[in-house]
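Chapter summary example.
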Amino acid sequence: MRIGMIGLGRMGANMALRLMRAGHQCVGYARRRESVAAFAAQGAEGAYSLADLVAALPAPRVLWCMVPAAAVDDLIAELAPLLAAGDIVIDGGNSHYPDDQRRARLLAAQGLHYLDVGTSGGVWGLERGYCLMIGGDPEPVNHVDPIFRALAPGAQAAPPTPGAPTGSSAEAGYLHCGPAGAGHFVKMVHNGIEYGLMAAYAEGFNILKHANSGQEQAPSDAERAPLAHPERFLYDLDLPAIAELWRRGSVIGSWLLDLTAGALKEHPDLADFAGHVADSGEGRWTVQAAIDEGVPAPAITAALYARFHSRGQSAFGDRLLAAMRYAFGGHHERSG
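The structure predicted for these 336 residues follows.
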């Protein structure tokens, strides 16, 4: 199949290369000419305008967009007039699912198909494959199935669940989740879960890190609150080794733990990181969806707020807490 890839960053370029390895033809376009030239240098075909990209594709055209969510509407406004009825536009980024519903209606009025595809795999996807969560009408989904199959990890990525029905594309790593917006809705919740898992690993290893806090305190720790039972916390634990241990046979083993072990091996003291943790929107949207549905999501919500806290935005509130405590009880501040 011949497909156009719009956006040739780390994700888009690698996805196009994976498709080419599977025998598909890819024409790549990006706003930056340097990105197109670098893509073409790898044996791919580049286009330096959207018009040239569209002209290079057979009908019905398939155009996969890997651009930031904030840029999708402007891109579609520029792209849609160049297309013909039956063409398929795919948003593989992290758009908010209500935007997908709106875009699908808008493009359907022009005879165009719109698919939202939540894409997980990151910079490792070129070799490992991409988990794809798909929303849209069945007809264009079926038409693009060879592309989804080539991008997905394949059935060999994980053993089948014992007793589960067979024959679903989910076994290969991609799934048509429902109508417009369903793919990005599932990806949104996927990323919300990711927030919670990351927070749990980070908190657990932080507890392990401080398991030696009963040893003689350093001068810099003189103002820390004394431990009630310092004799209980005398362990100097090898965190990289523990991460490596848990990767083998542990119930909390995961690819995320694999990445954690790699990070601790390369940066045991994490000195290269400041601890400022960004959020790209999906965690907030997941929490908002939980609120709108009236269902609890305390772990994901706490993980989101932990990211907010990491950016130093709580300093004023923390000082006010200390001021209130002093006001009603005369308690002086003490670090730790």
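To summarize the output: The CA atoms of residues 39 and 110 lie 31 Å apart.
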